[in-house]
Amino acid sequence: MPEAILASNALLQALEPSARARFLPRFQRIELRRRQTLHHPGQLAETVYFPLSGLVAVLSETLDGDSVQTGMVGCDGAVGAFEAFVGGQYFCKGVVQVPGEALRLSATSYRELFNASAVFRSAGERYIEMLLTEARQCVSSAMPSTRWRAASSARSSTYSTGVASTAPCRSRRRLSRRCSVRNGQPSLSRCQSCSAPA
After folding, report:
1. How does residue 138 score in pLDDT terms, banded at 50, 70 and 90?
2. Domain with CATH 2.60.120.10 in the chain
3. 3-142: which CATH topology?
């Protein structure tokens, strides 16, 4: 496999020449087929996939059995980067949405690479942090009822009980802006303590 192939993935292009030479033979180039499942919840994280092209959706299942897309992985990252790093199991499902190609690496080799390359380790840590942030945002936006409950709770604790919140007015206004919901649903509109607009 030509070394230039590593430049097709943002995480792998960061590898130092010594790490490229050492780990290139361990990568296996594979095809990503549409609707192909790369991993299931509960499965041990034994492999990491570095897409060269295509997209892989990361789906989390709710207790009701519904699926919520909590991430999308393309040539800027890796599927299984977090799970393989901690040597655990998947808590989500990885499904190919857009066909393409990927480089596959065993979780053991991935951890060795992570420890051997300071540049890769730094890029990997930033990527894992971005994945966690993206997942939180996706789950938050997929649960509009949570925002409505937060707005209702804040409103009822301030207005319905007649007892003003002990939080500073500015904090309640910030909370109301974050928790206000669309479609005309109730949200905080005035601070009970000072009558300032929220």
Report:
1. low
2. 3-142
3. Jelly Rolls (2.60.120)
